[in-house]
Specification:
This protein is of the alpha/beta class. The chain is built from 14 helices and 14 strands. Helix 10 crosses helix 11 (296-320). Bound molecules: adenosine-5'-diphosphate. The site of adenosine-5'-diphosphate (ADP) has 13 residues, from helix 10 and helix 12.
Amino acid sequence: MKILVINSGSSSIKFRLVESSSGEAIASGLLERIGLEQGRMEYRVRNGDKNVIEKPIPNHRTGLEMLLEMLVDPAAGALASLGEIGAVGHRVVHGGEKFTDSVAIGPEVIAKLEECSAMAPLHNPPNLLGIRASMDALPGVPNVAVFDTAFHQTMPPVAYVYPLPWSVYEEKRMRRYGFHGTSHQYVAMQTARILGRPLEDLCLVVCHLGNGSSITAVKDGRSVDTSLGYGTMCGVMMGTRSGDVDPAILLDLIENHGMTVSEVKDMVYKRSGLLGVSGVSSDMRDVEAAAAAGNERAALALDLFADKVRKHIGAYAVTMGRLDAIAFTAGIGENGPEMRGMICRGLEVLGARIDPEANRVRGVEKVISAKDSRVSILVVPTNEELMIARETERVLSKEGKPGARP
Ligand code: ADP
């Protein structure tokens, strides 16, 4: 089935048209600057050249129409008719506790999604804009929501409850939710496939290391703990986000150092992490280059980054009672052999030894552990769009809705 996968942000729509059986990306691209004076769409069909169209895109609905027109353009398009699109899969950031699985979208689901918006005010409302635009532009084509949080809904209370007064959880539903779930699930499944072992028999740690990073413990195919929580600034250190810090510092900055709540928020989300410590950049490549040139704060930022990830791997091995594999994914995990090497230094205590030669690899699936390593270490490029397409197809076939048209 051909599935249009949409990731709708406040002023952008990322898309990919996926053939779910083969995983092939038939077309992909990005619409940006929606609602601004000059909009921009870039797209490519299969592995062809990148095309760019610049014109105003007043709203998500016109953006989606532009994208659909492009898909059936006789010269530059990918489809003979829009009837070939069997379904639309939407990335939705926050499903709260209401959504434990991907779901076909109808009026009731939209109402529940609106209720979840308060928890992800930056992400869910634009996701809903994309859903509404797609329902308008492709009437009769089923839409499915795939949540970043759903994979983590299998966590036990010991992983998701914060030791605060019970009312914080019971009344406000403030708990660990976790994010990047689609990526963690995809990478866990691929890891099992590469190792030739059933996912249900494995204890894995998946390290999704990008600008935003999170680590997940996957036992028997289920998320049992993850490093992002109620929000997206905790856990390991990231590009501009701090990860875990002592909340006393934040309170003290507000109480005694004249900072406002929004300044502190801006600090921990946008001015911390690699950028904050190094003072150089939030981009791992820049920080690595600065450290190599002798910048000590950049070198410390790299040490901190590796330390936080390594500690999570160790903690999760204990949580699961066993460790069979560690998988690295996302921008840094897939493309950063130096950082992978630094993280693995010290993991020998868990029986995990990296092969420095095999580790010299970027952006491809590969086992990078030494032959005598008890724990397998892998690079597994993530593919959230393919996972969303597969989820969309699974949900529709479960509900007996095979997609819109043949
Ligand atoms: P996002 O969370 O925005 O999706 P990505 O998964 O694209 O982020 O990851 C971005 C990070 O990947 C950046 O820190 C970037 O420096 C890093 N990265 C990309 N290529 C390399 C590379 N060749 N070596 C080291 N880091 C890399």
